[in-house]
Design a protein that fits this description.
The structure holds two protein chains of two kinds. Chain A is mostly beta strands. Chain A contains no helices and eleven strands. Chain A is 0% helix and 51% strand. The radius of gyration of chain A is 13 Å and the shape is globular. Chain B starts with a strand and ends with a strand. Classes of the chains: A mainly beta, B mainly beta. At the A-B interface, β4, β5, β9 and β10 of A face β5, β6 and β11 of B.
């Protein structure tokens, strides 16, 4: 089954404690992205990647890092989380082709105290 | 600067009515992509459609249809004969770069659609 998985699904942490949200896809897609969703601010792109070792900033990259060492994985790293990074995070991968269909992970709800 | 405006914050209609969700965009690029996504109450995000700027043909998929008009910078989404399961927040989005869904994407603020039985 084609899918994008994210872990953890829920996380409560404290300010400054480094964390990683993993994202993995089993569709051999080249393209992957991270988004955050906040009430009143909607969806905003954090980072995207067009292939292994190729990443670029989205709209709100501050405070985040990503890596793409292999095609299937695109982890989101918060080196020193702060309360303003409390949000709902979505990972997505995209099939190239006529439709560029995006497949989203189930979301990770992060709370930083 | 690129921008996506969904002026309708919330829409509520009775089941079986047709409903149109508006999306107006701003971009200086000649090559761009437009998207619609659905987020049902369960919270997941579902990709609905991508349209590139060179293709102004209307798209129909079952009860869903999309009207892309470059002259008015609009990419409107119509649900025909709405059903309760269509209740969701719908997002319109714009990407300006060469590699559509992999590049920078800007989202509208979303329209919350409620379908009453």
């Amino acid at each position: 089954e084609a899918q994008v998985t994210q872990n953890p699904r829920y996380l409560i942490t404290v300010t400054g404690k480094k964390l990683t949200v993993t994202c993995s896809q089993n569709m051999n897609h080249e393209y992957m992205s991270w988004y955050r969703q906040d009430p009143g601010l909607g969806l905003r792109q954090i980072y995207y990647s067009m292939n292994v070792e190729v990443t670029d900033k989205g709209d709100v990259p501050e405070g985040y890092k990503v890596s793409r060492k292999e095609k299937r994985n695109f982890p989101l790293i918060l080196e020193s989380p702060s309360p303003n990074q409390t949000s709902l995070y979505f990972c997505a991968s995209t099939s190239r082709g006529d439709t560029d269909t995006q497949y989203f992970g189930p979301g990770t709800r992060l709370t930083v105290l | 600067a690129q921008k996506v405006t969904q002026a309708q914050t919330e829409i509520s209609v009775v089941e079986k009515e047709d409903v149109t969700l508006d999306c107006v965009y701003e971009t200086r690029d000649t090559t761009y992509y437009l998207f619609w996504y659905k987020q049902p109450p369960s919270g997941e995000l579902v990709f609905l459609i991508r349209r590139n700027s060179f293709d102004e043909q209307n798209e129909i998929s079952g009860r869903y249809s999309w009207n892309f008009q470059k002259s008015t910078s609009s990419f409107n989404f119509t649900i025909t004969a709405s059903q309760v399961v269509d209740s969701a927040v719908y997002f319109c989005a714009l990407s300006e770069a060469k590699y559509s869904s992999a590049s920078k994407i800007i989202f509208g603020s979303g329209t919350r659609l409620s379908i009453r039985p």
